[in-house]
């Protein structure tokens, strides 16, 4: 409809102007209009007084809000990726690129769910103002900074004119990890792969001798036995495969007694995954919500930053079933969960894991002592602190 299109066009044109008026501004405007109506229709002197007072307040607010801003704003982070608990800082630089002196203003910088504000003084043409700030890194996660905006307005908050100067920036707060050099030598070993039950005529894991049949590779002939028996005999091997490590991490809130258990579990998964990446092992990481991107160390740690527990997520038993269905050729499987994961769930998970793999479940229990037990084809270890992980890996490998 032409009328509807015209109305929408007018609304879009007025939207930037109407956005400047705050809730208090609309209240004062409404009071001024009502006062003017009462003064004109009812002859109330008080109504005219209210109208004049409201109009004066709005006029003063306009004087505070008008004026052009000519800033060049730079938001600089020393580093965009830090480990949880480490210091992270940034610097905000604002320069007046115009020739005229700018009026004081307020600068707002959203930091995650919070808001940092800075007072910007008068700036002569070409002058700069710098602000240093410290960023919160006490929790793992993704902290979004910005966009940086300058705000002009009156002290009563009737009018508020905001100008955006930068795009948002991301600060990744990575989980803590520990190095497993040496401790992982047994768990992540790859001497040309681990043997399977499939027989092959050409591999490293020797299995047995058998009679030669047409088509066999003559390089596999065992000449000493052939000379002794008088017939051609060839070596039979067990087929081997390259080590493929799978980490299964539960993000189901019901699997953890408190948030500290989840953070320890994520740190365990991160430490194992990072060691596999450093040693260039094939790595797959599955969580309750699906597979994580683990192509590079940075991408892997960034993905761990975004994990959160949710009651609606699948539990560790479902993660184990997913591992068996999606990565049936795994040579080592590490399932990670909290103290709320019971033996029934662990058994349910173990029934779907690859039979020929080394299957381990890590029970994250902050403050508890290291322990190890067997549950079906699953080795269950209890971990009380991240620093104990190298010790646990040595126990599993042994």
Automatic annotation (TrEMBL):
Any Pfam family matching the protein: DUF58
Name listed for the protein in its UniProt record: DUF58 domain-containing protein
Keyword Signal: no
Transmembrane segments annotated in the record for this chain: 48-67
Transmembrane recorded as keyword: yes
Keywords (A to Z) from UniProt: Membrane, Transmembrane, Transmembrane helix
Taxonomic lineage from the root: Bacteria, Bacillati, Actinomycetota, Actinomycetes, Micrococcales
Top-level division of the source organism's lineage: Bacteria
InterPro entries referenced in this protein's UniProt entry, alphabetically: DUF58
Domain DUF58: 209-290
């Amino acid at each position: 409809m032409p009328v509807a299109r015209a109305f929408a066009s007018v609304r879009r044109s007025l939207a930037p102007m109407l956005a400047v008026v705050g809730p208090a501004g609309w209240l004062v405007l409404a009071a001024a209009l009502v006062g003017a109506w009462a003064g004109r229709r009812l002859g109330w002197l008080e109504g005219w007084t209210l109208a004049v007072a409201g109009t004066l307040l709005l006029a003063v607010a306009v004087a505070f809000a008008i004026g052009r801003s000519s800033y060049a704003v730079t938001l600089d982070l020393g580093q965009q990726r830090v480990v949880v608990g480490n210091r992270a800082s940034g610097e905000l630089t604002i320069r007046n690129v115009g020739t005229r002196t700018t009026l004081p203003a307020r600068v707002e910088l959203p930091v995650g769910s919070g808001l940092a504000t800075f007072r910007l003084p008068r700036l002569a043409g070409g002058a700069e103002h710098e602000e240093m700030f410290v960023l919160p890194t006490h929790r793992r996660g993704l902290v979004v900074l910005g966009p940086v905006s300058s705000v002009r307005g009156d002290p009563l908050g009737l009018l508020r004119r905001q100008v955006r100067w930068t795009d948002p920036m991301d600060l990744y707060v990575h989980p803590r990890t520990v190095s497993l050099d040496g401790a992982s030598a047994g768990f992540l070993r790859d001497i040309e792969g681990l043997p399977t039950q499939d027989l092959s005529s050409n591999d490293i894991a020797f299995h047995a001798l058998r009679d030669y049949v047409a088509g066999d590779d003559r390089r596999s002939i065992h000449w000493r036995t052939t000379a002794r028996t008088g017939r051609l005999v060839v070596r039979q091997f067990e087929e081997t495969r390259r080590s493929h490590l799978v980490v299964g991490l539960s993000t189901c809130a019901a699997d953890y007694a408190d948030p500290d258990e989840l953070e320890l579990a994520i740190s365990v998964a991160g430490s194992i995954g990072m060691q596999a990446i450093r040693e260039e092992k094939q790595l797959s990481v599955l969580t309750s919500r699906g597979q994580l991107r683990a192509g590079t160390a940075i991408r892997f740690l960034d993905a761990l930053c975004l994990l959160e527990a949710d009651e609606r997520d699948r539990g560790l038993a479902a993660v184990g079933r997913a591992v068996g269905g999606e990565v049936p050729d795994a040579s080592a499987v590490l399932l990670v969960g909290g103290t709320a994961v019971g033996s029934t769930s662990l058994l349910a998970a173990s029934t779907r894991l690859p039979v020929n793999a080394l299957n381990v479940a890590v029970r994250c229990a902050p403050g508890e002592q290291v322990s190890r037990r067997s549950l079906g084809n699953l080795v269950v270890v209890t971990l009380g602190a991240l620093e104990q992980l190298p010790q646990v890996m040595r126990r599993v490998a042994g």
